[in-house]
Design a protein that fits this description.
Length: about 180
């Protein structure tokens, strides 16, 4: 998979940048939203759990060469969630793989921001990181996330069971299909 470096990606409305230790307070507030972690936890994440999450994500940058990033609204500079590429260690049966994922604070959903962030991460994965395939995972009940994946060109690879016993759809996008999609606008 190589080590492409953890990028800072900028889109029209967003900045995806590596997490920093001082992101903890903003992340705790976002992770406290029950809806943020509804899939797969069915509830919020505590401050302690969020601290462990942040430490793990920062460690992944070095260990995996990929990791999800803080998602910042450009106009306000406010953290509104996270997005990016990561190795899905929690689902070892599909490894080796790199996943694109996103989570947004409730007030920022339904505005195309997940698609915008996902597209930027996928573009980086195929153009700079040299990936041949990217996966994305969701619980079929999470229809909105599935729609984002379809808009990005992902197709269903298989359905499996996640670590909490939840049904997980494994979607995939191969470089060739992505290139065709870009060529056709």
């Amino acid at each position: 998979m190589g080590d492409p470096g953890i990028p800072t990606l900028t889109t029209e409305r967003l900045v995806l940048r590596p997490f920093e230790a001082d992101d903890l307070d903003e992340l705790v507030a976002i992770h406290a939203e029950e809806s943020f972690w509804w899939y797969p936890r069915r509830g919020a994440m505590s401050a302690e759990e969020t601290g462990a999450f942040l430490n793990t994500m920062r460690r992944r940058y070095e260990e995996d060469g990929f990791g999800i990033e803080a998602l910042i609204e450009r106009t306000s500079g406010k953290m509104i969630g996270w997005a990016g590429l990561a190795v899905p260690h929690f689902l070892p049966e599909i490894l080796p793989a790199v996943e694109v994922g996103w989570r947004l604070s409730g007030a920022y959903r339904g505005r195309g921001l997940a698609t915008e962030a996902g597209a930027a991460a996928v573009d980086f994965g195929f153009t700079k990181a040299g990936l041949e395939c990217i996966v994305s995972l969701y619980e079929p009940e999470n229809v909105a996330s599935g729609r984002v994946m379809q808009r990005l060109g992902f197709t269903h690879r298989r359905t499996t069971v996640g670590p909490r016993g939840e049904e997980v759809a494994v979607m995939e996008l191969h470089r060739g299909r992505w290139e065709e999609g870009r060529a056709h606008g």
